[in-house]
Design goal:
The complex is a heterotrimer. By secondary structure, chain A is mainly alpha-helical. Chain A has 2 domains: 74 residues; 133 residues, no CATH class. Chain A is built from 8 helices and 2 strands. By secondary structure, chain B is mostly helical. Chain B has one domain. Chain B contains 22 helices and 2 strands. Chain C is built from 11 helices and 9 strands. In chain C, strands 1, 2, 3, 4, 7, 8 and 9 form a 7-stranded mixed β-sheet that branches. The radius of gyration of chain C is 21 Å and the shape is globular. The relative contact order of chain C is 0.19. Classes of the chains: A mainly alpha, B mainly alpha, C alpha/beta. Chains A and B meet through helix 2, helix 3, helix 4, helix 5 and helix 6 of A and helix 8, helix 9, helix 17, helix 18 and helix 19 of B.
Chain lengths: 222, 500, 324
């Protein structure tokens, strides 16, 4: 769907192109239009009396393509924006974090790969810890505390108070607790353990702060 | 008139019982608190909170549900303003200027004017429902497929006006949005369109998924690009509440927004969705300096928010008097009512007057509660922005994942917010705006379905759109608007048109 | 922390598959409703499970997994652990019409489930716009013979109950009205009330308020007996139409392989719930039909599914209806 590569390649030009962003945008639109036309190639267009499923998408795709061509044409005639720099770190970690959440929240299988459903107790911290590294200022300690405190909050809020059918922990976890414990009790106990761990981490690592973390602090702030 | 007063006093006698006031308050409070979580829109909020009303008597349950609905709606606007994640179609517009205001340290003013505008709109809309509810249902029946198609065309023209930068790019984005809306099973024939054979695409792309991706996730990715500017949002918090100058700027948009929203909300085909867009367009056209819009204009928050709330309320009219839910949220309300043994329909008003008027009275009380709950909360929400972004965004990310998962319990929905997030990021990088695309998406589906329906019923006669007076006038308005939108920019000089 | 959990999870995984049927249920049960919250099937599921939860001593949590005419949710349910902690609410579409509508269906309604029991059915009513030039079913059928081409029939989208039952109706009366699709029942009814379309078939819970309010007219109800909600509407047989008795039934299923003792417990709880006065009252208010004791058994449900698949497949295939 996206064509970041062309974009990056065009950024260092000097020539007839006066609005590189327009060129890249135009190419993107034309690619999109081509994709839509290809996807609807087997569908019936129908008549006005009984419009087929392909009629509107096809005309829209043509419209999108024409807009793309117009953008490219104007890019040679008028001055426009240069291409912005792409930083791939942000999108990369954000996407990986979301995917990690998606594949761990409930049992997942894709081809040969299959994962057991680990529930919010794993998916939540994963999303925060991985996602947190999207910025170069990420600090492991902060993210750890954040994930250990937000996750139990969400577990109690969604799983306990609101009773949502969102998987909270793997069934196997129940085996760790005495047989008589109900699901809710296990949920609460797990949440308390996590919250306690968050507090423990907070206090245990506080002393180390002046020596190690402060350095990161300076580079992170200004 | 006498009828209206006696009906309203009956309603208030029901709604003002201690228990019902408590329920309205509780509903608004939980609705706001859950609805404010990024990624949890009104539909998800109501579905989540539906079970807590089960133990109540029907009237109490409905009052609480209405409270939850308003709370969720307002909570959604709060998220749109603070972190630029609209939870539903109608708060897309709020995000445009509201979030810009937040970036300038005016989040409190934006939230405050939204709350006050909403309260005013809610009050007017309650009166409209109480006095005109029954006669207005006639309007719902004038609008057939032909009229809806023309209405949606007009809405798409709004989208052109809405755009901030290049008109060409805006048109391209609208087309892309409409194109995206055609993904999924074709409604008439049941054939798959552009689904890549993936079963989870067969019902099309979910609005919440698309909006969260191209607004919320893309916004995070973009913020991460500019680490040096990341503190803009929390820079200075500024005043918490709007001052006199703000009110002076905002009161007219609130009045106009209320009127537009209330009118469009009555239409059963989800006309309410157009309210905020129409209001924004109008304010932008009326403004002395339209360039302020999209850069934190208070009118761009006050008008659409009032329209949003007025529409949210008057969209109860088709539900209460016809039994027809105009949109997904209302469909959920129907389900909630049926679970409580009340089947919405034309008889509710006569068969169950205490419930009907009690609910209308509690609408107003719900709006009052919202104001009472939210003005003090504004300070708290704004303070949230003080959290360093490097810690705020992972939390938003997790809430988005949970929120999207909770709607359909589908991990694929979660994956799609990542995909759309990247698409949105790419679009921003290439200078496209996501808002017109989202509007195209919302209106596109309604537009295609109604176009095809109208043509089937007219047996392929295109003239049906001009023969029917309502449809013809809507199309005429659309044409005029389009000309007005294009003319000045064409005259002004070329560079203005296609760059900014 | 995470390592410990994972390690222990692996060990504990071995022990959980033991025979737990006696103590069942020891934790909340998830019921997948394959439609959005608020629809007729969701409402029936919520009403029925409310009482079942009390009988079983554990809450039944409704999980709405909507998509593809309900087949997304049922597919997931069919693939769930057969331990009794994931069950689902299927209906006429997912366990009757789906094999014809979805050629790539990933489950077999008759083979991949352990039926629990029939919950409640909502009968189909044949309704027309207020201004329709006929006042009873006979007049309607006569009109269709001469003006069939001009008539517009509304339905709530391919794969919906009103679509399948509508196609069936057309095949029974041998008519070919122009089909107009809507997204859901609400908009379709709206246009019916506005006289924009001519007639449709849909579940009683959706149309009853409009019939009572005089906004649309009902020709017949497709059940053997009249409904207490619409006592003046004749049955199709009374109105002179043979061979059109349809109801959008809802029934609970467990995945194939669920221990029979657990299925029995669930089936008993469901049956008890249907005998409960409050549950009954709420279902009847919806126009629902409560199955008799013999219709509620897992065996009866199995038979129903087989006969429904056999009934819908030829009808829908002949009409060329597909949702893929």
């Amino acid at each position: 769907m996206s064509t970041p590569r062309e974009g990056v390649g065009l950024s260092g030009r000097r020539g007839p192109v006066r609005a590189p962003q327009g060129i890249a945008g135009g190419i993107l639109l034309i690619a999109l239009a081509a994709l839509a036309l290809w996807l609807t190639r087997d569908l019936d267009q129908g008549t006005l009396n009984a419009m087929g499923p392909a009629m509107l998408p096809r005309w829209l795709a043509i419209g999108v393509g024409l807009s793309g061509l117009a953008l490219i044409a104007f890019a040679f005639i008028r001055d426009g924006e240069p291409l912005e720099r792409w930083s791939l770190r942000g999108p990369f970690f954000v996407i990986v974090a979301i995917l990690a959440f998606a594949v761990t929240i409930r049992p997942f299988s894709f081809g040969a790969l299959s994962l057991p459903g680990l529930g919010l107790v794993v998916a939540g911290p994963l999303a925060i810890l991985i996602g947190g590294y999207a910025t170069p200022e990420a600090r492991f300690r902060e993210l750890l505390i954040l994930s250990l405190s937000l996750t139990p909050f969400c577990m109690v809020l969604f799983g306990d108070l609101l009773n949502l059918p969102i998987p909270v922990f793997p069934q196997e976890l129940a085996g760790l607790f005495p047989a008589g414990w109900s699901q809710k009790a296990i949920l609460r106990a797990t949440a308390i353990v996590m919250a306690a761990a968050a507090i423990a981490v907070f206090f245990a690592t506080r002393k180390a702060r002046p020596t190690t973390i402060d350095v990161a602090d300076h580079s992170g702030r200004i | 008139m006498g009828d209206l007063l006696s009906n309203l006093s009956l309603g208030f006698s029901v709604a003002l019982s201690l228990q019902n006031i408590g329920l309205a308050f509780l509903g608004c409070l939980v609705g706001t608190l859950i609805g404010v979580l990024p990624g949890v829109g009104p539909i998800a909020t109501i579905a989540m909170l539906l079970p807590i009303t089960f133990g109540l008597d029907p009237t109490g349950a409905l009052i609480m549900l209405a409270g939850i609905y308003y709370g969720a709606q307002y909570g959604g606007s709060t998220t749109a303003i603070l972190v630029n994640i609209p939870g539903e179609a109608t708060s897309v517009v709020t995000a445009l200027d509201g979030h810009q205001m937040a970036r300038q340290g005016r989040a409190g003013v934006a939230l405050g004017i939204a709350a006050i505008g909403s309260f005013f709109a809610g009050t007017v809309a309650t009166l409209v429902i109480a006095s005109l509810g029954a006669p207005l249902t006639g309007l719902a029946l004038i609008f057939g497929p032909t009229e809806y198609f023309s209405l949606m065309v007009m809405g798409l023209v709004f989208a052109v006006v809405l755009a901030r930068g290049s008109i060409l790019k805006a048109i391209a984005m609208i087309l892309v949005g409409v194109l995206l809306s055609t993904v999924g099973l074709d409604l008439e024939t049941g054939e798959e369109r552009m689904t890549f054979g993936l079963p989870f695409l067969s019902d099309g792309i979910d609005f919440a998924v698309l909006a969260m991706g191209i607004f919320g996730i893309a916004e995070i990715m973009r913020n991460l690009d500019h680490t040096e500017h990341r503190d803009v949002v929390r820079q200075a918090i500024g005043r918490l509440l709007p001052n006199r100058q703000d009110f002076k700027q905002a009161y007219k948009p609130v009045l106009r927004g209320t009127f537009i929203g209330a009118m469009l909300g009555i239409l059963p085909g989800n006309g309410a969705v157009l309210g905020p867009f129409a209001s924004y367009t109008l304010e932008k056209k009326l403004a002395k300096d339209p360039r302020r819009f999209g850069r934190g204009a208070i009118e761009g928050v006050a008008g659409p928010e009032s329209a949003n709330n007025a529409g949210a309320q008057t969209s109860f009219i088709p539900l209460l008097t016809l039994g027809i839910p105009p949109n997904a949220v209302m469909a959920l309300m129907v389900g909630a009512m049926t679970i409580h043994g009340i089947i919405p329909g034309p008889q509710v008003m006569t068969k169950n007057p205490t419930l009907f008027w009690g609910m209308i009275a509690s609408m107003w009380i719900g709006n009052l509660m919202l104001l009472i709950i939210n003005l003090p909360l504004v300070g708290m929400w704004v303070r949230l922005l003080k959290v360093p972004y490097r810690m705020l965004f992972p939390a938003i990310l997790m809430f988005c994942c949970i929120g999207i998962y909770s709607i359909n319990s589908l991990p694929t929905d979660v994956m799609f917010i990542a995909l759309f997030g990247f698409v949105g990021y790419t679009l921003i990088k290439f200078g496209f705006e996501p808002a017109p695309m989202l509007l195209g998406f919302v209106l596109g589906k309604l537009m295609e379905e109604n176009l095809r329906r109208a043509l089937i019923i007219s047996r392929g006669q295109l003239s049906t759109f001009i023969d029917r007076p309502v449809s013809a006038s809507l199309l005429a308005v659309a044409a005029i608007l389009l000309v007005i939108a294009l003319l000045p920019s064409i005259r002004k000089g070329r560079d203005e048109v296609f760059t900014e | 922390m995470k390592n410990i959990v994972l390690a222990l999870a692996a060990v504990a995984g071995l022990a959980t598959t033991g025979a737990q049927a006696q103590n069942y249920p020891t934790r909340p049960i998830t019921m997948i409703v394959p439609f959005a919250a608020g629809g007729p099937t969701d409402v029936v599921a919520r009403i029925v499970t409310d009482h079942m939860s009390r009988t079983l001593g554990q809450q039944i949590v409704i999980e709405n997994v909507a998509g593809a005419g309900g087949t997304t949710g049922i597919t997931r349910g069919a693939q769930a652990q057969p331990d009794g902690y994931t069950i689902m609410m299927g209906h006429m579409g997912t366990h009757g019409a789906a094999p014809a509508l979805y050629p790539n269906l990933k489950y077999d309604p008759a083979k991949d489930f352990a039926p629990i029991g029939l919950a409640a059915g909502t009968p189909i009513v044949i309704v027309a716009k207020k201004d329709f030039p006929a006042n009873d079913l006979k007049g309607f059928l006569d009109y269709m013979k001469t003006n069939g081409e001009k008539v517009n029939m509304a339905h709530a989208g391919v794969g919906s109950v009103s679509h399948s039952t509508g196609i069936f109706f057309n095949s029974v009366i041998k008519a070919k009205p122009t089909m107009v699709a809507y997204r859901g029942t609400g908009p379709a009814l709206n246009d019916l009330m506005a006289n924009t379309v001519d007639f449709m078939t849909d579940q009683i819970v959706n149309v009853a308020p409009q019939i009572q309010g005089g906004n649309i007219k009902a020709f017949a109800i497709a059940t053997p007996q009249r409904s207490p909600v619409l006592p003046n509407v004749p049955t199709t047989k009374e109105a002179g139409l043979e061979g059109y008795e349809v109801s959008a039934w809802n029934a609970a299923f467990a995945p194939k392989g669920t221990p029979p003792e657990i299925v029995k417990k669930l089936s008993d709880a469901l049956s008890k719930s249907l005998d409960d006065e409050t549950t009954k009252k709420r279902l009847l208010e919806l126009g629902g039909v409560i199955p008799s004791a013999t219709e509620r058994t897992p065996e009866a449900l199995q038979k129903l599914v087989e006969s429904e698949v056999a009934r819908w497949t030829p009808v829908l295939k002949a009409a060329g209806a597909t949702a893929e």
